[in-house]
Write a structure and sequence with these properties.
The protein is α/β, with parallel strands linked by helices. Helix content is about 40%, strand content about 25%. The chain is built from twelve helices and ten strands. The strands form two sheets. A six-stranded mixed sheet has the order 6-7-8-3-9-10, sandwiched between helices. The protein has a four-stranded antiparallel sheet with strand order 2-1-4-5, with helices on one face. Helix 4 packs across helix 5 (about 120-135) and helix 5 (about 120-135) packs across helix 7 (about 155-165). It starts with a strand and ends in a 7-residue tail after the last helix. The model is unreliable at about 255-265 (pLDDT under 50).
Length: about 270
């Protein structure tokens, strides 16, 4: 099967300091690839590099990131603007920081959708309410009329997840999507991500410390350490029979990982 998103020997530097080195992997249509590793191992940088949002001093200094015939590090800002959101969605670790504090949630959702398709505000609100209800908001109308500062961190996180899913992108980049949520809502988001993959065929690149989520969702796992690939392969193999010593250490550090051998939740 032809890959949808391909990283080839990618190197990322921040102000000349190398953070990621020689990373290669492929994400296929409908696949969920989990990226795990310690904080600072370069996981989030790999996601941000695809959309050209590495921030000040961040740069892909070597290698390619191919998406549907476009090498993303070489793409112009106009080309990236057409891809962001509509074709490649992003769930940020701290959604509240990525939302405008002085505009309502409904305004921001409508602006995001209207940037890529022609639709009325009524249609935008209808779609947004349906998505928010799937994410556990029984009062979706109130959420649309709220400002980010009026919502809890977990509520903002679920809003960001809904916003990323609304356009049904071909690829969803999920940067710690459950980190700000309690256990009940973590399970809801895991179930929602699985549904998005099954109903829309969306491929998901999942960065997380939640190995339970990786065990429940991922088809493939990439393990990073200090910006380098330690292990890359089928999730069942990596989680149950890791070959690299670092992967074994990582799994041993999290007690629930051993329970993750039974992946029957998928």
């Amino acid at each position: 099967m032809e890959s949808l998103l391909t990283y080839r020997s990618v190197e990322i530097c921040y102000q000349g300091r190398r953070a990621v080195q020689d990373i290669s992997f492929a994400l296929h249509p409908g696949e969920i690839l989990g990226i795990v590793g310690e904080s600072g191992s370069g996981k989030s940088s790999l996601l941000r590099a695809a959309l050209g949002i590495l921030g000040q001093g961040g740069l892909v200094t070597r290698g390619d990131i191919w998406f549907r015939g476009t090498n993303l590090p070489d793409a112009t800002e106009n080309e990236l603007r057409a891809i962001r959101g509509r074709q490649i969605g992003m769930i940020f670790q701290d959604t509240k920081a990525s939302l405008c504090p002085i505009r309502t949630i409904g305004d921001q959702i409508h602006e995001s959708l209207a940037a890529h398709e022609r639709l009325s505000r009524a249609e935008s609100d209808r779609r947004a309410r349906a998505m928010l209800e799937q994410l556990g908001f029984p009062d979706s109308g109130r959420i649309l009329n709220s400002y980010p500062f009026e919502l809890s961190g977990g509520m903002n996180q679920r809003v960001g997840i809904g916003l990323a899913m609304l356009s049904e992108p071909a690829v969803l980049l999920a940067d710690e999507p459950t980190s700000a949520l309690d256990v009940v809502h973590q399970r809801r988001i895991v179930a929602q991500l699985r549904t998005v993959r099954e109903t829309c065929g969306t491929a998901i690149l999942l960065v997380t410390h939640n190995i339970g989520a990786v065990s429940a969702l991922a088809d493939t796992v990439l393990v990073l350490h200090e910006g380098r690939t330690v292990e890359y392969g089928p999730a069942a193999q990596v989680l149950s029979h890791p070959r690299a010593a670092y992967t074994k250490t990582l799994l041993d550090a999290v007690p629930q990982l051993r329970a993750g051998k039974d992946r029957g939740t998928r």
